[in-house]
Write a structure and sequence with these properties.
Elements: H1 7-36, H2 40-67, H3 71-74, H4 95-116, H5 131-142, H6 156-164, H7 167-178, H8 184-210, E1 215-216, E2 221-222, H9 223-238, H10 277-284, H11 304-310
Antiparallel strand pairs: 1-2
């Protein structure tokens, strides 16, 4: 026979359970959340690995442009067996541009090695560096098809304009990542990467600034307008306000609101803009959506952060 429990005693049990059970569940759920939360080292590793996507892109584009071959010849141990880039090729660059781009190329090899010395990383992702990929980007920047389609490999000026697309995105990503990193070692690495990426961007902008009024053949559009269109597109795709500026801007956007020349892009205090990984993905996919791959990464970027949006 089951033990008898009075109505009053049962009411007390119910009351006690209603008071205590929420605390038990809260403690349990908090424990689960804490257990599933990433350690500082894991968070840092994800952010550093994410940067490999852009470093691979830059390394291959610059190596092929200057030498006609990429990492598979220069540093095959860094490819991880990843697929060959699509459409990358050598450009008949003038001596100065070839010298600069070759230096950039080997700098990117060093960046890949430095990051991979700290984290496991991943194989080179599939990269679409074809003329068609850049032509689509330029069409989007101008809001209409350019005729003939823009070809980054046609000559030195076109290659510099195409190069303008890339390092600045990585630069803003490193600025954004720095505040999220936990360890001093990770922050030191990112600071070193940021310093060189900033230098590359500055040199590209200076080379274009020298020719800001030159018309890009056969479009009859000045170099400065190309940079402005590209910068406007990147801000639009990032979808979080002004984070980008061309080499010539209205007085209100120049340093201290007093100049129109804009060799270095910066905010109202001339500090570098920052971007989150989500904003970076929206730009490099060309879709404005971190969940929709495309652009330079036809099957998506690699690493935990990028893949989390595709899965």
């Amino acid at each position: 026979m089951a033990p008898y429990i009075s109505r009053d005693r049962a009411s007390i049990f119910v009351l006690l359970a209603s008071l205590v059970l929420p605390f038990i569940l809260l403690d349990y759920s908090s424990s689960v959340l804490f257990a599933s939360a990433k350690s500082p080292e894991s968070k840092d590793a994800d952010l550093l690995e994410f940067a490999l996507n852009l470093e691979y892109l830059e390394a291959e584009f610059f190596l092929f442009g200057a030498l006609g071959h990429g990492l598979d010849v220069v540093a095959p141990n860094l490819t991880g067996g990843g697929p060959l880039p699509i459409g990358a090729k050598k450009v008949e660059l003038d001596d100065l541009t070839n010298d600069v781009i070759l230096q950039f190329a080997f700098q990117e090899v060093g960046h890949l090695r430095a990051i991979k010395s700290k984290v496991t990383g991943f194989p080179r992702p599939l990269l679409d560096l074809s003329s068609k990929s850049f032509a689509k980007l330029m069409d989007n920047a101008f809001g209409k098809p350019l005729v003939p389609p823009f070809d980054p490999y046609a000559n030195s000026l076109n290659f510099i304009i195409a190069s303008y697309v890339i390092p600045y995105v990585g630069l803003t990503g490193y600025v954004g990542a720095n505040r999220l990193l936990e360890s001093a070692t990770s922050r030191e690495l990112v600071a070193g990467l940021l310093g060189v990426e900033s230098g590359q961007d500055a040199i590209l902008r200076e080379l274009l600034y020298e020719r800001k009024e030159q018309l890009v053949s056969p479009y009859g559009v000045a170099v400065e307008e190309f940079t402005n269109r590209i910068s406007i597109l990147r801000s639009k795709l990032g979808n979080r306000g002004l984070k980008d500026e061309g080499i010539v801007v209205p007085f209100g956007l120049g340093a201290e609101g007093k100049v129109r020349g804009n060799i270095l892009a910066g905010d109202v205090n001339s500090l570098a803009y920052s971007r989150t990984p989500e904003k970076i993905l929206r730009i490099i996919y060309g879709s404005g959506d971190e969940h929709v791959c495309g652009g330079f990464y036809p099957i998506g970027a690699s690493g935990q952060i990028a893949q989390s949006y595709l899965n």
